[in-house]
Amino acid sequence: MSRLTLEQKTFDTASVSAETLETNEMIHDITGKMDDIWAAHPSVAREARRTGKGAFPMAPRSDRAQTETIPGPGGPLDLRIIAPENPDGIYLHIHGGGWVIGGPEQQDPRLERIADNCNMAVVSVDYRLAPEDPYPAGPEDCEAAALWLVDNAGKKFGTNRMVIGGESAGGHLSALTLLRLRDRHGLTPFCGANLVAGVFDLGLTPSVRNWGTELLILNTRDMENYVRCFLSNGEDPRDPDISPLYANLTGLPPALFTAGTRDPVLDDSLFMSARWLAAGNKSDLTVYPGGAHVFMAFPGAQSRDALERIETFIGSC
Known about the structure:
alpha/beta, 37% helix, globular
């Protein structure tokens, strides 16, 4: 049986450690000096993040990474692979970035950790980005990558045990991929879902709408603009293929939800973890006092704890 438990003290400002407060001040300082990412075409912000000039620290590239190019719905689709010699499973990773920025190479250290600590082959999808390629391009690419693994995991990696997951928009796309495989192909091949600070309602949950202008990685305006880039053809944001919070969630694998209390999309994890559980699935939610959006990208005790929990979950599925 799975049970969600929340305590009021988690959301009390007195529970936020001095280290976390210092990290958040550092993030405020970094973002305060950045150019307005919406003052130019999103490709400018995309390049800034790629070169370490965005809100997140630049991650060193892994010299172990290899690229597998597979057929995709929009043309060749690259998968970035970091794998041990004899993996016990596969982690299909989907990166974040508001469906607009980011790339599979920008979290290599965390993916190397998973590969080594969980003995998993990590496969990260280089899906098409908005606004050049809006919905449904990104979900289609992630669906194609998952289907390729269903057909090729045993031959390529010697194992068919698979976990899926990602951060922010990557959590959203992971949930959509699970639903697409179940509903369109009758497949439930993943034994777990690692959903970190996911965005599950593109109509925007109350925590996003009420956040305001404070820029702690994200703010309300950012989320509105990211959604506007992703949904450029008048789609209904409550369509379950767009916002998985509104989908039928029965028959999905155990999920680990991770969020911080200082994250504009906190409600997405609170709501989705409860709906996941109510649909009859195992659901585990961990909320970190004061944690910013995808806070584990920054060093600190909370990051270490979150990464260890994630690795324990991925390795035990």
